[in-house]
Write the structure tokens for this entry.
Amino acid sequence: MVAFIAGLVAFVVGLIGLIGWGTDFVTVLKGTVPLILLLGGLIALYGAYTAQQDKIEAKKEGKKEKKEKK
């Protein structure tokens, strides 16, 4: 019950702040959203790169095992 009341109070205070400082909120969003997108894109690129490297390494090991069996 305490968590519900605290959440309700936080929601109401946040709503009042958003209405009162709406233009400042938009300014902050304009500054942070591109930065978050850049960082998220870099993380996705790094993940794709490492996945590709793992695939290449797995192929090399598979070829090496085939040669050893012969």
Q: What stands out?
A: The longest helix spans residues 22-69. The mean pLDDT is 91. The chain has one domain: 22-70.
